[in-house]
Design a protein that fits this description.
Layout (H helix, E strand, L loop, with lengths): L1 H5 L2 E9 L2 E8 L2 H10 L9 H9 L4 E6 L5 E3 L2 E3 L13 E2 L12 E9 L3 E4 L4 E3 L4 E2 L8 H15 L4 E9 L15 H12 L1 H4 L3 E10 L8 E6 L2 E3 L4 E2 L2 E2 L4 E2 L4 E3 L1 E4 L29 E3 L52 E5 L11 H9 L1
Parallel strand pairs: 9-11, 10-19, 14-18, 20-21
Antiparallel strand pairs: 1-2, 2-3, 4-5, 6-13, 7-12, 8-13, 11-12, 11-18, 14-17, 15-16, 19-21
């Protein structure tokens, strides 16, 4: 009987890429697939057959890889595996995640970057929330930005267990992909690496919407694969002011312009000689020495549990039920006669989440199939 089960597995393709030895498998029996993987020294946990079964019954093929440790590069004391790119067509815009939980000993993070010609995407089968954005932070955050953002994300998922967090949704056109921009701005070579060369059309030409979704889950948290759907355009994190004060969160918009953005403000400390000064008008330093926008990078390796978000924010984060420390000053600037001017973002010292930072996983196949049906 074991040999019959082994025969239910077929190697469809095999090839070596960088440090990987890759096989594409098909299977007609989930128990046979589990046996084949175990006997060929792939590390899967005991009792993985129930996780394999729905994929086998659905006719999925399996992408399996072994890593040659002699070819693995090390960066800052960590093994840095090369990214793997593959593509396939599917009628359903989904991302299989349940198999990835098989070897998980705890919580794991998944970052999905979805590139579409003109649409933002969200998950259809789990709760969607937005990362808190557009608030002021203390100067200490500048030197600990990755740590700060990691802590903020931790607080966000703590407030909304099981939710998938939208961190970025931006409408890009050639030579304009961000506002403010960082060194992590997506470039045309990035776009080609992520699949623009396969799609062609508007996307390859630099016209696209990039949505970044971030999920954290354990074995008991996700009962189904991620299923994506089109979502309404939103804006947020752009320093927009109105009579009601500074905007926050994500609001409906004709186009997608949402980003995780945080600011450090430096109040004018010199003499004020005009008779009727209007405060709260933000601009660049008089000497023109603008400070660049900083992107949060290497978030996976940022220290956790050492920075309290409440101690460095300047307003209550009511979006996630977090109150700032009493020692934190208010972020609402004083004014004269109730007058405010819209502060140009580029003239503030800004902190923003880079659109392509972290683990990148591109999920474009649903859009490809939809395009073919239009």
């Amino acid at each position: 009987m074991p040999s019959a089960r082994k025969a239910s597995v077929r190697i469809e393709a095999k090839f070596d890429v960088a440090e990987y030895k890759i096989l594409i498998l098909s299977a007609t029996d989930s128990t046979g697939l589990e046996t084949w993987l175990t006997q060929n020294h792939y590390k899967i946990p005991p009792g993985a057959e129930p996780l394999l079964r729905p994929y086998v019954e659905g006719g999925s093929k399996f992408f399996v890889a072994k890593v040659d440790p002699q070819k693995v590069a090390m960066q800052d004391g960590h093994a840095a595996l090369s990214p793997i790119r593959f593509h396939y067509d599917s009628e359903d815009f989904t991302l299989p995640i349940r198999l990835g939980m098989a070897n998980s000993s705890g919580k794991q993070d998944l970052i999905v970057n979805i590139i579409s010609a003109d649409k933002r995407y969200e998950v259809a089968n789990y709760k969607n929330v937005f990362i808190p954005t557009n608030f002021d932070v203390k100067p200490a955050v500048k030197a600990r930005f990755a740590e700060f953002y990691a802590a903020l994300f931790d607080k966000t998922v703590e407030a909304a267990p099981g939710a998938v967090v939208t961190e970025y949704a931006w409408t890009a056109v050639p030579n304009y992909h961000c506002d403010p921009c960082t060194d992590a701005d997506i470039s045309n070579p990035d776009l080609m690496t992520l699949g623009g060369d396969l799609v062609g059309g508007r996307i390859a030409g630099g016209n696209f919407v990039l949505t970044r979704l971030h999920a954290r889950y354990g074995k008991a948290d996700m009962k189904d694969d991620l299923r994506f759907r089109e979502a309404r355009p939103v804006t947020g994190g752009r320093e927009q002011w109105s009579k009601n004060g500074l905007e926050y969160g994500a609001t409906p918009s004709p186009q997608n312009f949402f980003q995780a953005r945080y600011a450090i403000r430096h109040w004018w400390t010199g003499p004020i000689k005009c008779a009727n000064p209007v405060r709260g008008v933000w601009g660049g330093p008089p000497d023109g020495n603008y400070q660049p926008t900083i992107a949060a990078s290497k978030l996976a390796f940022a220290p956790r549990g050492k920075l309290e978000v409440a101690s460095v924010v300047k307003r209550d984060l009511w979006e996630i039920g977090l109150k700032k420390d009493a020692s934190s000053s208010s972020s609402s600037p004083p004014s004269s006669g109730g007058k405010f001017a819209t502060p140009p973002i580029k003239r503030l010292q800004g902190l923003g989440l880079g659109a392509l930072l972290g683990v990148v996983l591109i999920a474009m196949t649903g859009w490809l199939r939809r395009r073919a049906r239009r």
